Amino acid sequence: MDSIPVKRLILVATLLVCAWLAPATAQQEFAARAAAPVTFLQINDVYTTVPVDGLGGLARVATLKKTLAAAGRTPFLVIAGDFLSPSVASSVFKGGHMIAALNAAGLDMATLGNHEFDFGDDELITQMHAATFQWVVSNIVDTNTGKPIADAAPYVVKQFGSVTVGFIGLCLNTSEITGDKLKHTRIVDPLTAAGQYLPILKEAGATVFVAVTHLAIATDRELVAKYPELDLIIGGHDHYLITDIEGRTLISKAGSDAKAVARIDVSQRAGGAVERFYELLPITNAIPDDANTNAVIAAYEARLGAALDTLVGATRVPLDAVSAHEQVSETNLGNLVADAIRADAKAEIAITNAGAIRGNRVYPAGPLTRRTLVEIHPFNEVICTLALPGRVVLEALNHGVASLPRVSGGFPQISGLTMAVDRGAAVGSRVLEVRVNGQPLDLNRTYRVAIPDFLLREGDGYTMFKGQRILVGPEAGNLISGALEKYVAAAREIAPAVDGRITIR
Fold first, then answer.
1. Does the pTM exceed 0.90?
2. Which of 168, 211, 236, 360 could anchor a disulfide with 81, C-beta 3.0 to 4.6 Å?
C-alpha cells in the first residue's frame, strides 16, 4: 500500500492498456489530459456532510464539480461506499441526510459499503430509493426478488464522447456486515460477481473497464490479478490515500470524509490504449460552498436539534480518536470507552473493537457535548455481558491482535485487564502476561465480561463468543453511547490516560 500526503500533485501520468511506452513529455501529457472525454471525481468513506478540521465538506465538492463543468470538462462524481453511517446525524436520520446532500451535490454514481447496512437492509433499501444518482451493485442480491438490492444496476455502460465505459460495483462480504443486518439479502463473493459481469460489459461494447469497489486493498489486488482487463479501480474501505498500480490497473482510494478528491481523467487512443491522469485535490476553504448543497446540509444540521448540544461534562486532556492509533495500540479514548462499557455492565473485563470508536481526530480538551459523545460512538450497539472462561478471553485477545502491525477495526480496546503482545509471535499466540485486576488470567476460571453486541454477532471475526453463556443479551443491555454519556456525566470531568494496559513488543 502506497500512502501519500494530502497535497496537490500529479501522481500518475500515462498508463497504457497493453504495455508501458516511452514516457511522454509534460506538454504532451497535459494536452492528452485536456482532451480526455471524462473526468472522474472520487470520494469514499464519507461520514459527515461538513468539513472535518477544516478539510472536506460536500458543499465544496459540489463546487469543484460545477467548476470543472464550467471549464468544459465532463466531471463524473463517484462515491465508493460507506457514507450512510456512522455519524451523529446518521443516528437520527439513518443516512437520509447523506442521500439528500449527495443528491444536491450532483453525485453521479455510488456503490455500497459495509456501513450502508448499519440499520439493516430494509432501511438501506428505503434510502437507496430516495437517491437521484445511479447505484451500481454487482454482488448484493435481494433474496425476495432475486435482483440486485433496491433494483440497483448490476452493471452500467455509459458513453463519454468517443469512450465507452463499463462499470461494476463490488462490496466486501466479510464479517464487517453481520448476518442480522441481512434479513433478505445475500452478498456474493465480489471476485465471482466480477467474473459474471465483466464479459457482459464487453458484449455491450465497453472498451474501458472500471470497478467501483468497497474492498480491502488486498482484495482489490486479488481482483486485478484475476481480471487484468480492468483499467481503473475506484475504491474505498481503507481510510488512507492510496494510489497503486497493479499490472496495468490503477487503484485509487481517496482517504475519508472528502478531505481530498481524486481526479482521474480517462481517455482512449485510436488503437485502444487507455490513458489515466491522476491528481489529488485537497478540499479546503479555498473552495466556496455550493449554495444549494449547503442549504440542504444546513437544514439537516438544524434538525438535529438542541438536544445534541447538551453539555454532558468536560475532559482535561485531548482525546485520541485517530483511527490509525486506535486500531493498533492502546489510546486514552479507547480506555475511556472500554471503562464506560465495563462500568455499565458491572463486569470484571470489557473488550470492545477499536473500529467502533469513530471521529478519526484528536478531540481537544474542554467541554463534551452529547453530540461529541455520539460522534465518538455513533452506532446503536448494545452492551452484552457474558460468563467466559479465561481461555476464551485469551482467544479473543489473540484474535484482536492478529492483524498487527496492520491497522484493524477488530483491534481490542480493553478495561479491567492488562496484556503484553509479541508482534513477532505466531498468530494465535501473541498475547502474553494477561492480568485481570492485577492477578494472572486463570484459563479455567469464569469471568464476567462485557462486549458490544456486534462482537457477540461475530462481527470483526470474533467467533469465539458463540455458544458462551449470556448473562445480559442484546435485548436487555444498554446502548454503548448511553453508557459513555452516563460515565462522563457521573465524573463531570475526565482525564483518561494511556496507562499500560497494552504493551506491544
1. no
2. 236
